[in-house]
Write a structure and sequence with these properties.
single chain; 251 residues; globular
């Protein structure tokens, strides 16, 4: 018996990186998994590689209300329900404040905060009706401030406040809401950051490994392991919390 047998999970921004890692972990533990991403072709390719008995790739723009409503309705219809929502979709538009454009600000806040809001609002209807649900939001250590990331840091701090508020509102309906704040995770997004800084990717990873007590970088599987616990029934007495998965960087 898998921990997620009979459960249906949505993971947004899951065509690659942390989202794909979380989707894979849920599939390995028995869940039917919906991979949501802007590009339905990429989402479907990732879904097809999960090894799940039931998996679905869905094109969805998490900042668009109609797109979100259609995606959630499709998942419920095609996979037979909904029990877990992971709000992972995210982008970066890094720059120092005096160089940051309004579009840079709006795009990042839109995907992280508006996206989490729209997805959670769409999913909670099913969760409340069945008196069961798990919402997991992806924050970041950048919520504590990070040079060149005023937009991203504000969004990720907002995710933590959003998490605590949803926990207060939905707890009485059997819904747990938590967040994970990853530290440095080896993904295409962090590799892109290295290249933008004109640094060698391996050197960038080495320096980040040296910056935390465990002396290694994180991988999507590290976040997926934490997600699998927080969205399970074993964590039913945990809600409104943000778990930092960062190798101890913020100790």
């Amino acid at each position: 018996m898998g921990r997620y047998d009979g459960r249906v999970a949505i993971v947004t921004g899951a065509a690659r990186g942390i989202g794909a890692g979380i989707a894979k972990r849920f599939a390995d533990e028995g869940a039917a998994v919906a991979v949501l991403d802007l590009d339905e072709g990429q989402a479907s390719a990732t879904a097809g590689g999960l090894g799940a008995a039931k998996a679905l790739g869905v094109g969805c723009n998490v900042t668009d209300e109609a797109s979100v409503q259609d995606a959630v309705a499709r998942v419920v219809a095609e996979l037979g329900g909904l029990h877990v929502l992971v709000n992972n979709a995210g982008i970066t538009r890094d720059n120092l404040l005096f160089k940051m454009t309004v579009d840079d600000w709006d795009a990042v806040l839109g995907v992280h905060l508006r996206g989490a809001f729209l997805m959670s609002r769409a999913a909670q209807k099913t969760f409340v009706e069945q008196k069961y649900g798990k919402i997991l939001n992806l924050s970041s250590v950048s919520a504590n401030g990070n040079r060149g990331q005023a937009n991203y840091s504000a969004a990720k701090a907002g995710v933590q406040g959003f998490t605590r508020t949803l926990a207060l509102e939905l707890g009485a309906f059997g819904v747990n809401v938590n967040a994970i704040a990853p530290g440095f995770i080896a993904t295409e997004m962090t590799d892109d950051t290295a290249r933008r800084l004109k640094m060698d990717v391996d050197e960038f990873r080495r320096l980040n490994a040296e910056a935390n007590p465990v002396k290694r970088i994180g991988h999507p599987e590290d976040i997926a392991a934490a997600a699998a616990f927080l969205c399970s029934d074993e964590a039913s007495y945990i809600t409104g919390q943000t778990l930092y998965v960062d190798g101890g960087a913020k100790i």
